[in-house]
Design a protein that fits this description.
Order of helices and strands: HHHHH
Number of domains: 1
InterPro entries: DnaA_C, Trp_repressor/repl_initiator
Number of helices: 5
Number of strands: 0
Protein name: Chromosomal replication initiator DnaA C-terminal domain-containing protein
Radius of gyration: 13 Å
Largest sheet: none
Organism: Ensifer canadensis
GO molecular function, one term: sequence-specific DNA binding
Distance between the termini: 7 Å
Oligomer: single chain
């Protein structure tokens, strides 16, 4: 599977998780800001869980590498809040499980 497709799948999983958690965590009211937040989480998870380089993530999301570095920094800083950390851990487990199952099937 291409890095671009992998990153898009992670972004879609993240968006679904944010949607499902909407009643438990405060979401941003501005739609553009909310999309940016989902993208930042997806970039972070791609880098941390799937070990994709920041340069490859930048290419997949059609952004600059410094944008990926900033996204990772923002998410890491926000993990100091227990609720947000638990939410990110859930997304990390979901992505890890999805891509482990895919690897086991040989895709």
């Amino acid at each position: 599977m291409s890095t671009r497709l992998t990153c898009r799948l992670v972004q879609n999983l993240t968006a679904e998780a944010v949607h499902l958690a909407a009643d438990r965590i405060p979401l941003l009211r501005d739609r553009r800001r909310a999309k940016c937040h989902v993208r930042q989480i997806a970039m972070y998870v791609c880098h941390v869980v799937l070990q994709i380089s920041q340069g490859d993530i930048a290419n997949a999301f059609e952004r600059d590498r410094t944008t990926v570095r900033h996204a990772c920094s923002v998410i890491e800083d926000r993990r100091d809040a227990a609720d947000f950390d638990a939410f990110i851990e859930t997304i990390e487990r979901l992505v890890s499980s999805a891509f482990t199952a895919q690897a086991e099937r040989g895709e």
